[in-house]
C-alpha cells in the first residue's frame, strides 16, 4: 500500500509541479473563476490569445488582457511558447470568450524519483538522507516549495527508520532539492482466517470470526484484491470461509489488501477415476464417453479447470479410439467432471509406426497419462 501511495503521488507531482504555483491557487480562490491545465499548442501574441490542450484532449482558446497576471517561467504572453505546460484561472464572458486572470507556465523540470529508508535527518540545515534497496545513500535538501505527504507535514516530523519516496530536481552546487517527500511507517502485515459473520457493503466493511472466536472488522478500498468466489465486497456473504491479508492504518482500522473467500461445500465431492478407450466425443457439449475394460461406459464432462496430459493440449485434441484415463469428481447434479484428463493414440495407430498392440495389457508408447496416486 505504501509503495502504491508513493508511486501515485509522485506521478501527480510530475504532472502538476510546473503550473501549480501559489499564484494560480490564489487566483482560483476568487469567485466565478474556472481552472484548467494542459500543454500550450498555439500562441498569437498580436491577437492576445493562446490555446492549450487538456489531459482529456479538450482544446481551449484563451485570451489575455491588461489585468492578466503571470507566474512560473513567464512574465508576459510574449514569453509563452508552444510545448510549455500551463495552468490557467479564467472567466467565461457572456459572449463565450475565455479571459485569463492568472497564467502559470513553463517547461516541466526533470525530476528524479527514488524510495528507501530514512537514515538521517537534519531539520536545521534542511536536509535528510535515505538508503535505497540497492544500498545507495542519497542526500536531499528541502526548501519553501517542498511538498509533504504521508505521515508528515514538514521536515521536523521526519524520523529515522521511516520509509520515504522522494521526487527531486537538480539544484545549485550539485544539490538534490526535494520537490515532494512522502514518508511514514510501513504498516505491519496482518493475516486472519475464519468465517464471515457480517457484511456492510455501503460502509465498505465486513466482520470475520476467527477460529479462536475473536471477531475482527476489516475495511476495503479501491486497492483491495478479491479472490476465490468473490470479486467485490458485494459478493461476500455471511457463512463464507475467508482468508484475509491486510494492515492497520493510521486511524486504527484494519484494511484488507487481499480477500480469498467462498462458500463451504456441504460435503466433500466423491472422487471418480477411470481408464479405457474414448467411444464418443461431443465438443459442443464439453463431454466424452469412456468405455472401460469391463465394457461399461461412463460420460465425463470437462470445464475450464480441467488439465490435460499425454498427447492432449486441450479438449479439441481428444479423438475417438484414443486410450484415456481421468481423475474427477461427482457434482451435485450427478455429472462426472474431469479434473485431470490424459489420452493418446496407441503406437500401432500413429503414422509411421507398425508395432503391434500387445495381446495382454494396455498398449504401450502413450506414456504416463495420469499420476499413480
What does this structure look like?
By secondary structure, the protein is mainly beta. 6% of the residues lie in helices and 47% in strands. The strands form 4 sheets. A 6-stranded mixed sheet has the order 3-2-1-5-6-4, covered by helices on one side. A 6-stranded mixed sheet has the order 9-8-7-11-12-10. It is elongated. Mean pLDDT is 83; it is low at 1-29 and 352-368.
Can you tag this structure with a few keywords?
24 strands, disordered N terminus, 373 residues, 2 helices, 6% helix
What's the topology here?
Elements: H1 2-16, H2 22-28, E1 34-44, E2 49-53, E3 59-63, E4 69-72, E5 85-92, E6 98-106, E7 112-122, E8 127-132, E9 137-141, E10 147-150, E11 163-170, E12 176-184, E13 189-200, E14 205-210, E15 215-219, E16 225-228, E17 241-248, E18 254-262, E19 270-282, E20 287-292, E21 297-301, E22 307-310, E23 323-330, E24 336-344
Parallel strand pairs: 4-6, 10-12, 15-18, 16-18, 21-24, 22-24
Antiparallel strand pairs: 1-2, 1-5, 2-3, 5-6, 7-8, 7-11, 8-9, 11-12, 13-14, 13-17, 14-15, 17-18, 19-20, 19-23, 20-21, 23-24
